[in-house]
Structure formats: structure tokens, C-alpha cells
Design a protein that fits this description.
This is Amino acid/amide ABC transporter ATP-binding protein 2 (HAAT family). The protein is α/β, with parallel strands linked by helices. It contains ten helices and ten strands. The strands form two sheets. The protein has a six-stranded mixed beta sheet, sandwiched between helices. Strands 2-1-4-5 form a four-stranded antiparallel beta sheet, covered by helices on one side. The longest helix has 16 residues, at 167-182. It binds adenosine-5'-triphosphate. Adenosine-5'-triphosphate is lined by residues 11, 14, 16, 34, 36-42.
């Protein structure tokens, strides 16, 4: 569904990505792991039209979408849930959901979608009139994921959904992602909580120094001692580049 071909790019003249290549199939969860500063979030920005791509290609369902704007990417069915808290704290849950459909021309359809999304997340219906700031961290993340569903995306890019959440809430957010995957949504996630994320993923990707170092089934990466080294703050090293598929 999504393919990156030898992406080089960065911020202004600074190059951060030095050859990122991978592809992910429809209806799968892929987790991107790697040391701090490896360029994980930058890969998402490259896909979503927020990065200066120097060379390489981004293909979506075989169509070249390199350098498409975020608006165009949304039009292609891609949504991006950035790192951190992105709800509007003083607005109600319902109003936050409405924001997810703000770019849609058919607002009646958006209201219908809000109902569908609230069916998927009963907690949001229960707290629909509550200010977003009054939700727990995990509930706010669920609200963000729900809002990302408002335009019925086929691909969700989600950056560190577990950050700042207790282990229970992390599992809750991960369960939400698995449910979406089971409905056919494709998910690409960056996660520091690498073991837990790989455990619910189909595929994993190790990024280091702006390059794809490994790309394999999540279970195989979990069992790979080089990846274990990475979890302990090390790096997978040059040999691992050969393991890239
Ligand atoms: N807006 C920006 N302008 C310039 N450089 C940036 C910008 N955003 C990120 N960088 C740089 O790009 C590099 C990669 O950052 P990125 O956020 O992609 O890493 P990451 O792998 O997601 O790291 P982390 O795990 O710490 O979130 C870092 O050296 C960072 O300083």
C-alpha cells in the first residue's frame, strides 16, 4: 500500500534521511523503532508532505505522491497523529471530533461519521460534552485516534502514541490500533515502547542515522539479538544493513 523508495531529505538544507526504503502492505501494523534522533518522526513528515524531499519516491497504492501537501495526503486517505497531546484542551470531546472533519465539504457526512466513531469508542459518547482536558491521558490519545478516523482513512501515521501513558493505558491504545487493523486500516507507528509495540505489530522497521537498517516480521525482530541491543540503548551496526529486506 505504501512504499518509500530511497528517500533523501531533511529540514532546509540539513539532510536527515539518507536513503529510507520500505514498503508496507494493506491492513497491517508496522512499527518503526530506532535510537533517538534516527529520523523516525522525520519519515512520517516525509510521507505527509511536511519535509523537504531531495530525492526518492513515496508511492501510495502505486501512485506517486512524493511532495504532495498534507491536504492532498488527507485527500488520498492518509492521516497523521503527531507526537504529544494534540487535542484542544478547552473544547468538548464532541467539538474536538468535529475538528477532525473540518476539511470535509459534506458536513452532514462528518456528523454521521462522528456517530460511527462514537460507536467504536463508547467512552467518547459517554464524555462527549466534557472538556478534552478533563479526560485521562489514554482517553485523550483515544480521542486523537478517533478524530483521525473522521475522514475514514486507509492509512494512519501515528507517532509515539504511548508517550506519557501508564502501562495499562498503553495497552488500551494498542488494543484500539489492533481493532482498526482488523477492520482493514493500515497503521504505521513510531514507538519508543518498542517491545510492546512490536508485540502487536505485523512488521517492524529499524531506522538508524536516517537509513533503514532492518525490515522484517515483528516477531523476527523481537527475537533478533541485534534488536535487543538496540532496546538497551545500543545500535544495530553496519552488518544489520544486510538484513534489510
Ligand atoms: N524542524 C526541524 N528542524 C531541523 N532539524 C530537525 C527538525 N525536527 C527534527 N530535526 C532533527 O532531525 C533529526 C531526526 O529527528 P526525528 O525527530 O525524526 O528523530 P526520531 O528518530 O523521531 O527521534 P526521537 O526518538 O528522539 O523522537 C534530529 O537530529 C533532529 O534534531
Amino acid at each position: 500500500m505504501l512504499e518509500l523508495k530511497n528517500i533523501h531529505g531533511g529540514y532546509g538544507k540539513i539532510t536527515i534521511l539518507n536513503g529510507v526504503s520500505f514498503s508496507i502492505p494493506k491492513g497491517s501494523i508496522t512499527t518503526v523503532i530506532g535510537p533517538n534522533g534516527a529520523g523516525k518522526s522525520t519519515v512520517f513528515k516525509a510521507i505527509f508532505g511536511l519535509l523537504n524531499i531531495h530525492s526518492g519516491q513515496v508511492l501510495l497504492d502505486g501512485k506517486d505522491v512524493t511532495r504532495n501537501t498534507p491536504r492532498q495526503m488527507i485527500g488520498h486517505g492518509v492521516t497523521y497523529v503527531p507526537q504529544g497531546r494534540n487535542v484542544v484542551p478547552q473544547l468538548s470531546v464532541y467539538h474536538n471530533l468535529e475538528l477532525g472533519g473540518i476539511t470535509a465539504t459534506d458536513q452532514a457526512k462528518v456528523r454521521q461519521r462522528i456517530e460511527t466513531v462514537m460507536d467504536q469508542f463508547p467512552m467518547l459518547r459517554q464524555f462527549r460534552d466534557r472538556k478534552a482536558i478533563e479526560l485521562s491521558g489514554g482517553q485523550q490519545k483515544q480521542l486523537e485516534v478517533a478524530r483521525a478516523l473522521l475522514l475514514d482513512p486507509k492509512l494512519i501515521l501515528i507517532d509515539e502514541p504511548s508517550i506519557g501513558l501508564s502501562p495499562n493505558l498503553v495497552q488500551e491504545v494498542f488494543r484500539t490500533l489492533v481493532r482498526l487493523r482488523d477492520k482493514g486500516v493500515t497503521i504505521l507507528m513510531v514507538e519508543q515502547n518498542a517491545r510492546s509495540a512490536l508485540a502487536i505489530s505485523d512488521y517492524g522497521l529499524v531506522l538508524e542515522l536516517g537509513q533503514t537498517r532492518m525490515h522484517d516480521e515483528a516477531g523476527k525482530l523481537l527475537a533478533d539479538p541485534r534488536v535487543g541491543q538496540l532496546f538497551l540503548g545500543g545500535h544495530v551496526g553496519g552488518d544489520a544493513a544486510e538484513a534489510e529486506s
